[in-house]
Each structure stands twice: as C-alpha cells, then as structure tokens.
Amino acid sequence: MIANRRVKRDARVRKAATAESYTVARQRTMNPGPRHFEPDRCANCMTDLPQQIEGLFCAELCRQTAKVIRYWRSISRDGRIQQADVKLALQTKVAHLLAGGYPERARRLSQAIREEVWHRDQGRCCQCGAPGQEIDHIFGSSPVLHNLQLLCASCHQRKTKEQTVPASAENRRLIGKLQRERVEPKEPTYLCDDQDQWSFRWRELRKQRKERLLAELAEHGYRREDFPGYSWEEMWVEVQRELADVYDMGGYTPDDDSGYGPYSYFAHAMAKDD
Question: Is the Cβ–Cβ distance between 201 and 191 less than 8 Å?
C-alpha cells in the first residue's frame, strides 16, 4: 500500500515536471531506466527530499560529493590529474569527504580579515619568507586572527601533505566505488556529475523545486508570506506541526485532498487570517 502510494506521488511529480499525461508519467516512474536526475530526490544519492530542504541535495556532504566528482572527472579528462599540485588538491578534497565534508562556512573569511592577515605578515610566507599566496588556518577552522597565517603555495601544500593520513581499507573501498561508478564512466552517472550541464541547469531545477513546494504549501492553505522571519526549514516545521494537530483532532488523513468538511484543506485554509 505504501509502495503504491509512493508510485502515485512520483507519477504526479513527474507529470508536473514534464507535462506528460498521468498514465505515461506513471509508466515511466515505475520503469525509470537510467537515472540522471529525478525531481524532489537528492541529486547525489537519490533519496527523497523533505519539504524542509529547498535545494537539490539532502545534505551538505552530498553537495560537496557531487562537486568533487565534477572536479575529478574534469581533471581526469583534460590530463591535469598528472600534475603533482592538482593530484594533491584532489587527495585533499577526497580526504575532506571521508572526514564528513569540508567546513566551508566556518572557514570563509571576510575581506577585512584577509587584509589584516596580509598586513600583519607583511605579505610574506610565515614559513619560508617567500611572497605569500594563501591564508592558512593553523589549527581547526577558527577564523580568529591568531589562528591564521600567510603561506606560499609550496609551504601550504607541504603542510597539507604532512597532515594527510593514509586512507583505511574501508575508505579505500569507498573511494574506489566512487571512481568506478561516478568518475570513470564516459557518460555522467548523474546530472550533478556533469560539469557542463550542471553549471547552467541547477538554478532552474532548484527554482522548479521551490515552485512545486510553494504549490504544495498552497494546497494546505498557506502562503510563504504567512511566515515572516521564518527560514524555509522553520516554515515547513511549523506547517507540519499545525497539520499534525489537525490529524490528532480526528481530521483529514494524509490522503484526504478534497471535500469541504470541517477538517478539509478548504476548511483549514478558510480558518486562517487573510
């Protein structure tokens, strides 16, 4: 019963995204063939996306995984992977994935901090005195001034290499699986693996997802404007809480999307303030 409900839901989603008839959409949903991208599923791991997520990935780690795959495929095909610095960059990116992802937000530095580090270190590498090129976090991801130093590219690469530990057998298995299934195939396994296609399609795909979610929000009798100051996630948590309260009162069930009874979507919408 649950599987049948999911098939129906997936068919409705495909119909809305492709303008196919419901019959065709259901047939192709049940027999999708090679999967490159599916609306409302994570672009990287194909798990269902909850309404609380406005984007195309179920987690930051999935977004970063797809980004590394695109980079890996690109440098493998243009030969740059043979360069020592590029090979080290790839190893570092993969190591970050295995560690749970790179803390991009935590390590993002303001222009003012960057200028202060350059001024303090007089534009010179703190290790060898050569002209500085990159700002390095000494320990962890703290952006405080005493945890930052200016390094040249060579010293930064050497430090990164020294801190890289050999991959475990399990990690090597995971890396090999990514390489076989996502990097080596001539055709990208998923749309998010395709450097050229993804770069211009992800914005439109994200916009389409947001439009579908806003339409779903409207079916429940809500508008985005009803939640001023709420983040996207906070809004959906509140909507789900309110709908759960209605279910607890003996109202409509998740499959009840019609009618004008006291617990219908119509009644719930009319009960809200204009």
Answer: yes
- CA-derived radius of gyration, the chain: 24
Q: Domain containing 246: what range?
A: 223-274
pLDDT for the residue numbered 194: 94
- In the prediction, which pLDDT does 63 show? 95
d(CA 63, CA 54): 13
Neighbours of 208 (CB within 10 A): 15
Domain boundary among 131, 153, 183: 183
Cα-based distances in Å from 176 to 43, 157, 167, 171, 173: 20, 24, 11, 8, 5
CA distance 135 to 235: 38
Which residue among 127, 162, 183 closes a domain?
Answer: 183
Around 274, how many Cα atoms within 13 Å sit in the side-chain half-sphere?
Answer: 0
Q: Are residues 83 and 171 in the same domain?
A: yes
- Model pLDDT, residue 263: 39
Residue 250: inside a domain: yes
Residues with Cβ within 8 Å of 228's Cβ and at least 6 positions away in sequence, in order, are: none
What is the DSSP code (8-state) at residue 59? S
The tokens of 199 are what? 């770069």
Per-residue pLDDT of 33-70, as tens digits, reads 445 899 999 999 999 999 999 999 999 999 999 999 99
Does residue 263 lie within any of the structural domains? Answer: yes
Number of domains into which the chain is organized: 2
The pTM assigned to this predicted structure is 0.69
Type of residue found at 130: A
Taking 50 as the pLDDT cut, the residues of the chain under it are: 1-2, 32-34, 249-274
